[in-house]
């Protein structure tokens, strides 16, 4: 055997070993701390990485800068801390799911993932994403004890779901564009939500928030739903058109509602059971509602001075006296500017939605079939927002 061969063979064997450590055609499962250490020679790991359900204690995957597949840890009861001091990018999904005793997740250089899913992490209070994750197609944070989302600062994305995080007090990102859906629901009742740069969105849902601020929102191709929030005022000062439905329901403290530039809602418009909202006068430019217009609650004043076309049903019911408003809307109905079923009545003991209320002089059922179709379509538009998060 030549001296070259004797020298080359050990190098080839070493290179083959390193290559084997740094790639896997399927999923490499880390069974213990030594397995994590074994891939420390890799700057890039090609394939998927997972941590076995029985792994306990601390796992550090240091030195790795990039994972070309997924990094998934799921259904683990023993893992205490997880980290990767050099990891900058995960081309696939980064998922921490049902890790009951995890108290630390330290990824100080991580900036890019395909998707981030954090779920059922009852002991994780803070994220160690010091460099901030700024690129991800989807973000899902559910059922955690996180007190802050510091470290997640997405600029553009497709989907965001933040739900059932009872200690979360603030949600703020540089987000400017979301192409599918944003849903923030059932977190801490005191959570303050702010997206100061958000200009373009599709579906937006806010539920049980203390405040919601979207001052730059100009384009909304889908629907906007505000349900059971605690804020006293809501404003979308730059929004001109809503491509789906608009629903403001059971926001018990809401007393001031302003959409100063909004001209069209292409599906249904519902303003319902907002206990302290006694004046609806924040839609001064609204001209067209493409579905049903459904308002009920404690209003004493309702004004939509530019409204010229309601393609579905019209319902206004209030405990207050809305005679003046009803006279105006009856004139619209007579001119066929309201295409569907019409009902308008004040001093109602228990106001209800479209299709409720006693028959009276303002009630007209002649076009009920057309109205029902528009109501159904609008409801489907709103319901569709929940479906997009089945990921």
From TrEMBL:
Transmembrane segments: none annotated. The keyword Lipid metabolism does not apply. GO terms for cellular component: cell surface; fungal-type cell wall; plasma membrane. Pfam families: Ecm33. Keywords: Cell wall, Glycoprotein, Secreted, Signal. GO terms for biological process: fungal-type cell wall organization. It comes from the Eukaryota. Its main location: secreted. It is found in: Secreted, Cell wall. The keyword Cell division does not apply. Residues 1-20 form the signal peptide. Gene3D superfamilies: Receptor L-domain (3.80.20.20). This is GPI-anchored cell wall organization protein Ecm33.
